[in-house]
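Quality-control log, excerpt.
Job 1 of 2 completed; input and output follow.
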Amino acid sequence: MALLSAAVKAWIGREVHYPAVEEIGRASIRYFARALGDDNPLYRDDAFAREQGYESLVAPPTLVVETCQYADRAPDENGYAGHHWDLPVTGCRMIRAGNAYEFTRPVLPSDRISVTWTLEDIVERTSSKGGSLLFVTSVARHRDGAGDLLAVNREMLVYQPLEAGE
């Protein structure tokens, strides 16, 4: 079954921008570090962070790409409030196949993080079992209030046809 229709191909190159709603804040940084089980004093102690050369405490690196701080909408049916492409692909399950991160500087509590997602490519490949799989590559560029790049998140999604009865 061919998955890469003209309607799906038309999504390549689409971009979505989410402006920051508010500063990331100290509480978000503290809660995220706690959820990770990371008690690094850089994430909770201004004096320690300044001794290390930072202007204040900083966020764990992956907070910038995991936060939905920019999202100002209700969660979807899965409880997710962040970005997702609503591709016109039916009869498939979506599998998150990986992310590659590039961080340019630590996130500060005062940062207003905005993100622009670009759908870079969609390709169809044959799986090892002989069926078709759809590979979707997106890139998110996270920026601070001045427009300076904080991080890049390259994400791969795979759409796999459901088997009968799923």
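Job 2 of 2 completed; input and output follow.
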Amino acid sequence: MPLHIFEPRYQAMIADARATDGQFGMIYHDWDEQGPFLFDEGRIGCVAEIEKHESLDDGRSLIVVRGVERFRITDGLESDAPYYEALVTPYDDVGDADELDLVAHRLRTIELFESVLATLPETPLWLPDFSPEEEVSFALAQTIQVDREWHQQFLELQAETARLVLLEHVFGAALGKTN
């Protein structure tokens, strides 16, 4: 995901991240819907790892980040940093169907995605390789433009099967299919 870093607090956060492991946390927050960000315990986010960084003359920067893993906020931290800091724990999947069923489900979802691609007037310049032998739901979700609330719900699902079903609804809607 490309990001344009222009707020001073986030410029400081990126400088701190680059001075350590190159990672920081991202959480979706809608100020209008949720009010001020208050380190709500249990909120789910994603660890972002800086893959590319370009400094601009005025202090801004352009970065490209890759999602590494999900986390859950366990508590807020009081610090002198101008950005929010929190204690977090990993937020992993809790289990899924057996592997053979999961591979078949991944294959069906990938095929549905490819059917959507076939309807486009132009093929995207780049797409990740989707292998049904590996987790594909997060890579597929990155290829679609859906509202942020949908992406947050998707991020919070703890089973790949549930994420694949959600993707199939979006792909089916794009093809005019209803379930």
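Post-run check on job 2. The two ends are 31 Å apart (CA to CA).
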